[in-house]
UniProtKB/TrEMBL annotation:
It comes from the Bacteria. This is Pyridoxamine 5'-phosphate oxidase. InterPro entries: Split_barrel_FMN-bd (IPR012349).
Amino acid sequence: MTASTKLKVSEKSQLDAEAITAYLHEALVPLRLAVVGSDGCPLVASHWFEFRHQKIYCVLHEDALVAKRLQATGCCGFEVAHESMPYRGVRGQADVALLDGDAVAQLRQLFARYGIREQSKLAQWLLGRGDEERLVCLTPRWITGWDYSQRMSDAR
């Protein structure tokens, strides 16, 4: 990994870059994207994601409000975290690029990652509008991670 592609891990992060990278590769929970709405209030939406080359990729419909806000602002907040004990996850802020092309290929990778059968109604519906989907690339500005497994080992 070159210096230009190294994750910028917060000084206060409980997890280092290697642990954060491992977590993002293994976590099969949705990515939560946070953007500022046109009214100034936050908007949060969940999406399947893939982490590769120190970037986070997902797919959004071009008419989705989140896609429009990402296009307008060029940045977002994000979180990938489990909702049950022991709590662990990562969060940060990222610069965003909405790219033409490769959205269908990315959708297929996401189906495989999340165990979605490509023949399912959901997959066929998403693929059927593939020319309206946009590949979204998040380049983290900073990232932090936590894992409360040790602290919560006897909580239940």
